[in-house]
Amino acid sequence: MTHQISNARVEAANNKIKLTIRMAYRKYTVSEIINAIIRSGFTLKRFDEHPAWENEKLPGEFTAIAIRNERDPA
């Protein structure tokens, strides 16, 4: 018996289970992250860039502060 679930495959035979997971790593641009926040119904109030620990001239982390938009009563 075999089941395919998204990036995982489960096979069961002879009282044994084999799980295979295919992993993917993707980097996102800052604009993709900001647009995802806005498309999710938030208003971006503040976006800060913090330097990397190893080299202060490079960006290391970001902080986004957003407020959930009120939905119009239907």
Overall description:
The protein is mostly beta strands and 74 residues long. It has one domain. It is 14% helix and 49% strand. The protein has 1 helix and 5 strands, in the order E-E-E-H-E-E. The strands form 2 sheets. A 3-stranded antiparallel sheet has the order 1-2-3, with no helix packed on it. It has a two-stranded antiparallel ribbon with strand order 4-5. The protein starts with a strand and ends in a 6-residue tail after the last strand. The model has no long low-confidence stretch (mean pLDDT 79).
Question: Which bin fits the share of residues in helices?
Answer: 10-25%
**Approximate shape:** flat
Name the strands of the widest sheet in spatial order.
1-2-3
Number of helical regions? 1
Structural class: mainly beta
| Strand/helix succession | EEEHEE
How far do the termini sit from each other?
Answer: 47 Å
Query: How many discrete structural domains?
Result: 1
Largest β sheet strand count, sense and barrel closure: 3 strands, antiparallel
Q: Please state the average pLDDT score.
A: 79
Strand percent estimate: over 45%
**Contiguous uncertain segments of 5+ residues:** none
Work out the oligomeric state of the chains in this entry.
Answer: single chain
Report Rg.
Answer: 21 Å
Please give the number of β-strands: 5
